[in-house]
UniProtKB/TrEMBL annotation:
Entry keyword set: Hydrolase
UniProt name for this protein: Nucleotide pyrophosphohydrolase
PANTHER family, sorted: NUCLEOSIDE TRIPHOSPHATE PYROPHOSPHOHYDROLASE
NTP pyrophosphohydrolase MazG-like domain: residues covered: 35-108
Database matches in CDD domains: NTP-PPase_MazG_Cterm (cd11529), NTP-PPase_MazG_Nterm (cd11528)
A single GO BP: dGTP catabolic process
InterPro entries registered for this protein in UniProt: MazG-like_dom, NTP-PPase_MazG-like_C, NTP-PPase_MazG-like_N, NTP_PyrPHydrolase_MazG
NCBIfam families tied to this protein: mazG, PRK09562.1
A molecular function (GO) term: nucleoside triphosphate diphosphatase activity
Pfam families registered for this protein in UniProt: MazG
SUPFAM superfamilies according to UniProt: all-alpha NTP pyrophosphatases (SSF101386)
Length: 261
């Protein structure tokens, strides 16, 4: 413990030792030693989002710092489990390495996979086997429920598509399941619910689900698409407020059609 503050370079073992010291019930930090998995779980998510922002800024300095913060969260959770004698960092790393080797038989075995599609197909098949998933429904249920809803809906649509259930032409009868028509139909149901002053939450959810999977079919990330639109909305609003005598007199139509000066 005494030598830790004096080092010029640190490694993974030092980080584990540092967190262990912070968690020490006698000499540790009052905040660190009362934390649990539940109290810090949102911190991990926040740090991951900050890494994403660093990537968007293309900043090695930001990325280095934010990756360190993510690593701290990982080590903190590991130390919490080490205290319960459940597992240590080496167990986590060992299981990860084993998984990578098993899921890359085209690198570490004799399986042939010359394309990205073949690699992903093998990965999904191996993942399904190793996780004991016996049906396509099992693969859908394995998508975490606490994913952002747009991300989860795209993953659900993608996994359903692997079972052949998707908005595409059926090889059996040639029936075209048109996603645009489904979106229009869903939108009409939302309008009808609004006109009848009924709860439209279910219909809106269905509409959002369909739109997110339209993004998937067009090779777009729905979460990123919506994030970009949010940023554009703020920028348009800011520009209009700067160039308008009174922003409260600007109509929604003007806001959404505004292209900037």
């Amino acid at each position: 413990m005494e030598s830790l503050p004096k080092k010029e370079r640190y490694n993974m073992d030092d980080l584990v030792d540092l967190v262990t010291v912070l968690r020490d019930q006698e000499k540790g930090c009052p905040w660190d030693k009362v934390q649990t998995h539940s109290t810090i779980k949102k911190d991990l998510l926040e740090e991951v989002y900050e890494v994403m922002e660093a990537i968007d800024f293309d900043s090695p300095e930001m990325m280095r710092e934010e990756l360190g913060d993510v690593l701290l969260q990982v080590i903190f959770h590991v130390v919490l489990e080490d205290e319960k004698n459940h597992f240590v960092l080496e167990d986590v790393i060992t299981e990860l390495c084993q998984k990578l080797i098993i899921r890359h038989p085209h690198v570490f075995g004799d399986v042939q996979a010359d394309t990205v599609d073949k690699v992903l197909s093998n990965w999904d098949s191996i993942k399904k086997d190793t996780k004991g998933q016996e049906s396509f429904t099992d693969t859908l249920k394995s998508v975490p429920k606490n994913f952002p809803a747009l991300m989860r809906s795209q993953k659900l649509g993608k996994r359903a598509a692997r079972a052949g259930v998707d908005f595409e032409k059926s090889e059996e009868d040639g029936t075209e399941l048109d996603l645009y028509a489904a979106i229009e139909s869903s939108l009409n149901r939302v309008k009808l619910a609004d006109q009848k002053e009924e709860d439209a939450s279910g219909e809106i959810g269905e509409l959002l689900f369909l739109c997110s999977n339209l993004a998937r079919r067009l090779d777009c990330d729905a979460e990123e698409c919506l994030a970009d639109s949010c940023n554009s909305f703020v920028k348009r609003f800011e520009d209009l407020e700067k160039h308008s005598a009174d922003i409260t007199e600007v109509s929604a139509e003007e806001l959404y059609s505004y292209k900037g000066n």
